[in-house]
Amino acid sequence: MRASSLAALVLAALPAVAVAAEKSVVLPADHGYGQLRPGPGVEAAQRHCLTCHSTDYIVMQPPGDARQWQGVVTKMIRVFGAPIGDADAREIVEYLGRAYGPAP
Asked: Hey, what long-range contacts does 51-55 have (CB within 8 A, 24 or more apart)?
């Protein structure tokens, strides 16, 4: 491609780039239902889990004890490659078991 043709192509594309840069999207606020329940370990869950998915994936799960949540966290690490260390994984499992476990 000749330099003049390339320059013409770049100049022709500039208005489209400028228009695209001006657009923005305002998302609605998160619904309170998706907020993680407070408790020890919630920070670790927010720090790690929310990097890949919304809290809806947590709060909509059927209640499960720590053993069930251990399986979920292990799957996130081994299958989906979540970069969660052993200490944080234990903290998250304990938190989820307490906060989203079976009703007493």
From this structure: 51/82, 52/76, 52/80, 52/82
Length of the chain: 104
Residue 30 has pLDDT above 60, yes or no: yes
What is the CATH code for 34-99? 1.10.760.10
- pLDDT higher than threshold 90 for residue 17: no
Distances (CA, A) of 34 to 43, 54, 56, 59: 15, 8, 5, 6
List the chain domain ranges: 34-99
* pLDDT attached to residue 88: 98
The model scores a pTM over 0.85: no
Is 90 exposed, middle or buried, given 0-12, 13-18 or 19+ CB atoms closer than 10 A? Answer: middle
